[in-house]
C-alpha cells in the first residue's frame, strides 16, 4: 500500500517522523541531563524513540514506492540517500535511550554482577550516547527533510 485515500503515503508518514524524531531526541536529552526529569519520565524516551524507529522504515519504503512513480532526478537521489541514513541515527537514539533507562532500573542492575563504579560509568556513557544520538538524529531528519523539500519545490 503506497497511497492513502488517493494521496501518496510517503509525505503523510514523513510528517510523523519529522515530529517524532525531534520530540524523542529532546525528551532523551532532557532525561540524560536532568535527573529529576529522568526519574519522572521512566521509559518514555525509549518508547518515543521506538515509535520513531518503527515509523522511519515505513516512510522510507513508502518513499521508494513514490520514487518509482515520479521518476528519478539528482535532487531526489540526494533526498533518498539522506533518508536512508535516518534509521541509523534513530536506531542509535533508541538504543541509547533504552540503555539510559535500564542502567537505573534496579531489577536489571541488581541481577548484573557489576560494581557501583562500573554502573556509574555505564550511566555516564548512556547519558553521553543519548545526547550524541539525539543531536545526530535531529540533524539527519533535517538533512533528509530539507533535501526532500528541495526535490519537490526546487531550490528556494
Automatic annotation (TrEMBL):
Pfam family, one: DUF2231
Domain called DUF2231: residue spans: 6-153
Alphabetical list of InterPro entries matching this protein: DUF2231_TM (IPR019251)
Membrane-spanning residues: 12-34, 46-65, 85-103, 124-142
Top-level lineage group: Bacteria
Record key words, sorted: Membrane, Transmembrane, Transmembrane helix
Name under which the protein is recorded: DUF2231 domain-containing protein
Organism: Gordonia spumicola
UniProt lineage: Bacteria, Bacillati, Actinomycetota, Actinomycetes, Mycobacteriales
